[in-house]
Amino acid sequence: VFTAIMLIVTLPILTGGLLMLVLDLHLNTQFYDASFNGDPVLYQHLFWFFGHPEVYIIVLPAFGVISQALSTSAGKSVFGGPAMILAMGCITVLGALVWAHHMMTVGLETDTRAFFSAITMMIAIPTGTKIFNWLSTFMGNPFSTISLDIWYALSFIFLFTLGGTTGVVLGNTAVDVALHDTYYVIAHFHFVLSL
Questions:
Q1: pLDDT tens digits, one per residue of 70-88
Q2: What is the separation of C-alpha 194 from the centre of its chain, rounded to a whole number of angstroms?
Q3: pTM confidence score
Q4: What residues contact 79, with CB distance under 8 A and at least 6 apart?
Q5: Does residue 38 sit within a domain?
Q6: Is 150 within 8 Å of 69 (Cβ atoms)?
């Protein structure tokens, strides 16, 4: 449900941005051409409004798979089920609000950068809730009964936690500017998706 909501909200924005780009290329409109009072940064805003939530669109179904695998292995419901659902909702809302943290180097106002930095760091709260609940579900099970799917789930949790930690570091505006277009950002993305 949360993934579908994010797709319904973000795909029309991407479609509109790409339509404006096609019109600029083929019909000589000037949506993004700065020499004709267009705004090239507008394309970045439209792209990242879709591009950042796309990460959550990809990873939210994996959260469900991990929850199901841990629940099945433990023989009990996921610890804090309602909190897990609330965390997914918070991740959905916050994930759609933080697109501009990819654009700290384009000259955003200081208060705008502070807003996006704060919202970016706030995603760590529901994410931390999910990690805590996953590990709490797993606790109490003897290690001798861990199957291969649980090893994959634990590997995902470890890599996702590492990626989330690097994301909190990138939430700081000064660090984000310093690490912009580096392999640190690429590693963060791949760790979050546990690729």
A1: 888 888 899 999 999 999 9
A2: 12
A3: 0.88
A4: 133, 134, 136, 137
A5: no
A6: yes
